[in-house]
Amino acid sequence: MGALxxxxxxxxxxxxxxxxxxxxxxxxxxLERVGTDGERLYILGDLYDFWFEYRHVVPxxxxxxxxxxxxxxxxxxEVHYLAGNHDFAIGPYISDTLGCHIHREPFDxxxxxxxxxxxxxxxxxxxxxxxxxMTKIIRSRAAKWLWRLIPPGxxxxxxxxxxxxxxxxxxxxxxxxxxxxxSQIETLAGRGYDYLxxxxxxxxxxxxxxxxxxxxxxxxxxxxxxxxxxxxxDDKPLTL
Length: 240
Ligand SMILES: [Mn+2]
Prior knowledge:
The protein has 240 residues and is α/β, with parallel strands linked by helices. It has helices spanning 17-37, 63-74, 92-97, 129-138, 141-148, 152-172, 181-189; strands at 3-7, 38-43, 78-82, 101-103, 107-111, 114-118, 195-198, 205-208, 214-217, 229-232. The chain has a single domain (3-232), classed as 4-Layer Sandwich (Purple Acid Phosphatase, chain A, domain 2). The protein has a five-stranded mixed beta sheet. α1 packs parallel to α2 (63-74). It is globular, with a radius of gyration of 17 Å. Bound molecules: manganese (II) ion.
């Protein structure tokens, strides 16, 4: 039985060309490794700093990564892609062309009797009502329909600005008790999971919760290194 791999918050397209090249090379190495001993790959959101696919156009960023994902699925390795707040608009290109399983909501995995809850990590802050309302609007069918009317070149230029703002907001936000994130995580854990695995906060962390569940945050690939991935059952962060 192969390993499970988990990654989050790679944010392809967010950095300088040189940083992107380094990051992409690391990611391609990891995907190759998944191809040798992996059974499943879970992408827990924000693989892309911004993703939007038109019927005939997809982002030009990270094409080699997309090809590698397709290579994995064509060899029978399951790739699960949970939409993050930056790549919420993943669609048929990801599912039909690349063969990934798309998840739009947090979901559960059971593996050899271990119960794992997978969540991008957004929308947990108790005072984040504005975020939740805005999210509902921008992820609506109507919004996607309107967005498609904007030529891709202009749309992506706007998105680049908005993505940067959102990233700084996320990174600067207090994810501690004051935001009631932890109480929400404890409540989730109370459903009886062994592990809760998330991203989004960009802070890699392992924490044992009150009920004995383990919270793991995969951190982010931004900032010039320390990409966090996880293999299972070793459940140790990989050093790439
Ligand atoms: Mn995020």
